[in-house]
């Protein structure tokens, strides 16, 4: 099994961090976000629509228009952003782990999938856009990245 972060989710998080870190006094044009994070502009426009629909960003039209965070950066988690563009954080065979039912010898496997979801949530729901815009992560996340072997593939 491989846990993958889609390009859409990666770009969405990066664009949202860029908005939070922006020194602009007002809305930031999508083109500026795209250039700053090297994201294809047309793809970013679709991502920003998803983020707007989910209440993460707001758009302003007209001269000086662009995008702003719809709520404070400290209230927007990485999990919020990923869910906005990709849906639930963990799927098994395109189903939520809680919707699965295993029987017999494989019955304990469901506990593994649920534990995976809990741990993904624990990290992504703990990290806010404000943290990332400051260049930091919460202590619990930093401890995970500092653990021996964290950066090594088995």
Main β-sheet description: 2 strands, antiparallel
Please tally the β strands and state the result: 2
Q: What low-confidence regions span 5 or more consecutive residues with pLDDT below 50? A: none
CATH topology (fold) name: Arc Repressor Mutant, subunit A
Structural class: mainly alpha
N-to-C terminal Cα separation, in Å? 14 Å
Strand residue content: 5-15%
Overview of this protein structure:
This is Rrf2 family transcriptional regulator. It comes from Isoptericola chiayiensis. Pfam families: Rrf2. It contains seven helices and two strands; from the N terminus they run H-H-H-E-E-H-H-H-H. It is mainly α. The chain has a single domain (7-146), classed as Winged helix-like DNA-binding domain superfamily/Winged helix DNA-binding domain (Arc Repressor Mutant, subunit A, Orthogonal Bundle), CATH 1.10.10. A two-stranded antiparallel ribbon has the order 1-2. Helix 2 (30-37) crosses helix 3 (41-53). It is globular and about 65 Å long. The mean pLDDT is 91.
């Amino acid at each position: 099994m491989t846990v993958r972060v889609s390009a859409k989710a990666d770009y969405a998080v990066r664009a949202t961090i860029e908005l939070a870190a922006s020194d602009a006094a007002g809305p930031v044009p999508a083109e500026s976000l795209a250039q700053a994070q090297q994201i294809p502009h047309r793809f970013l426009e679709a991502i920003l629509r998803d983020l707007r629909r989910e209440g993460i960003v707001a758009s302003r039209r007209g001269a000086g228009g662009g995008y702003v965070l719809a709520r404070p950066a400290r209230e927007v988690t990485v999990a919020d952003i990923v869910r906005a563009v990709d849906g639930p954080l963990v799927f098994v065979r395109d189903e939520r782990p809680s919707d699965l039912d295993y029987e017999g010898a494989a019955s304990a496997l469901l506990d593994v999938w649920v534990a995976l979801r809990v741990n993904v949530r624990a990290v992504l729901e703990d990290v806010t856009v404000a943290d990332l815009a400051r260049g930091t992560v919460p202590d619990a996340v930093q401890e995970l990245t500092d653990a021996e072997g964290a950066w090594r593939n088995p």
